[in-house]
Amino acid sequence: MKGNSALKTSDFYYDLPPELIAQTPLAQRDSSRLMVLHKNSGEISHRRFSDILDYLHPGDCLVMNDSRVLPARLLGKRLPSGGAIELLLLTDRGDGVWECLAKPGKKLQAGAQVSFGEGELRAQVLQVLDNGNRLVQFHYEGIFLEVLERLGKMPLPPYIKEELADSERYQTVYSKVNGSAAAPTAGLHFTQELLREIEATGVALAYVTLHVGLGTFRPVKAEEVTEHHMHAELCMISEQTAQILNAARARGGRIVCVGTTSCRTIESLVLPDGSFAAASKWTDIFIYPGYRFRAMDALITNFHLPESTLLMLISAFAGYETVMRAYRTAVQERYRFFSFGDVMYLHGEASK
Q1: Less Cβ around it within 10 Å: N or C end of the chain?
Q2: Distances (CA, A) of 209 to 146, 158, 247
């Protein structure tokens, strides 16, 4: 692989037949196929996700992102014309004001009024931001999250064309903290039963929070990888989680991240000496080949879009050639890709 300064976004392209993009989740969460990639040898094994138990060892720590996806897609009518509009909630600015994506944008200038659910929720556009997003003031009775649960739809990724019959299938079974615009999808493969089995083997379970933004789907437009600027996302580690992570490190266990969001959280918040403390921050960490991992030892992750920052992250962890070869194998073996697709385990040993 060429030097990091010469990395091109196009280096992370691979050819994916459209029919391999999973449109619906499997009936059973943990029945997805599992590709095991040994990062040191490049060896590949083909298993089922429930076999993940064979790769987790007593003393390890499994780190999961407990963020919950907001039903943040609102379909309504512009007042007084009745024209159809769509708002997608991005960031809570406080006091009922949200930064939103708006469609059609030209119809939603400052001052525009919108109604949702026969007037149960009303909104006014306060400002058009430089990035084209809108600041919107919402008016409602009661608790906003409960109104959203009634009126909002799940903001599925743009490559999923089918409606989701059960919105909980786009939530992890351990989701708890509302705030994401997209699911931390590696966690969709776990069931409560499987988590109990994992814990019973002596693996510690730890939860972090990173609220996933829509920037996770934003294509990398810079030709040179190093010129791309990541979107910022809020991430948090609690005191309890910090203690669990520190205990795993002390006993020589591995830190196994479920998903790139868990990885980005602990890599953003690990202290210089490799330990952890309760903390939160807005992180725009961008991990690509050449990055030195300081916290994560192994990774469970879905198959990612070509030329995406997530593909760059796993290439940084397991090696560019190794990962791109594994992706070509996944296409040949007809794995299912992206949010509702199959899963990869990047097998690594504990840091010394």
Answers
A1: C
A2: 21, 24, 19
Residue range(s) occupied by CATH 2.40.10.240 in the chain = 73-151
Q: Which 8-state DSSP code applies to residue 9?
A: G
CATH 3.40.1780.10 fits 4-69+166-347, yes or no: yes
Residue 262 · residue 172 · CB < 8 Å: no
Neighbours of 100 (CB within 10 A): 23
Report d(CA 102, CA 113) in Å as an integer: 13
Torsion of CA 309, 347, 189, 304, to 10 degrees: 20
DSSP state of 225: G
For residues 315 and 309, give the distance between their C-alpha atoms in angstroms, rounded to a whole number. Answer: 10
CA atoms of 151 and 167, how far apart (whole Å): 13
Asked if CATH classification 2.40.10.240 holds for the domain at 73-151, the reply, yes or no, is yes
Instruction: Quote the longest CA-to-CA distance of the chain.
Output: 65
Q: List, for residues 35-55, the tens digit of each pLDDT value.
A: 999 999 999 999 999 999 999
Based on DSSP, count helices (H) and strands (E) in the chain, helices before strands.
6, 17
The CA-atom distances, in angstroms, between 70 and each of 148, 250, 332 are 8, 37, 35
For residue 337, the 8-state DSSP code is B
Tokens standing for residue 159: 């490559």
